[in-house]
Amino acid sequence: MQNSQKPSSNFSPTKKQLIVIFFLVSTLFIGAIVKTGMDHHWWLPETEIVSTLKPEDIKVRLDVNNAPWYELVLLPKLGEVKAKAIVAYREKYGCFRDIDELSGVKGISASVLEAIRVHIKIGTGTTDVVLNIRE
Length: 135
What we know:
It is a single chain. This protein is mainly α. It has helices at residues 15-40, 69-72, 80-93, 110-116; strands at 58-63, 120-121, 128-131. It has a 3-stranded mixed sheet, with no helix packed on it. The longest helix is centred in the first third of the chain and has 26 residues, at 15-40. The mean pLDDT is 82.
């Protein structure tokens, strides 16, 4: 004869179950603390804005002879297709000697050229950052 065991109405977890529950609760608690810390950046020093410089006051001038297409795409009125066309033209015909030579690139109209003229240069290969600070 087999003894049938009836489930006990009083549930009491075993020692192994208690260890697993403790581990899971501890992991959840530590994860919540880490998530809260990351959301509030408590490890970073406090910062203070010391200038009224706006993003439109910063002008970046890219060298069209050295800038890759993914940098050129940041210029106004230039999308990925036109930026890649500039790079392809440069690879096929060599470096640009003058900014107006960009008008020979397919898709670069006079209005696009005027929009990007202040953001590009032909030259040294480094990027210039110009700040328009109005006091």
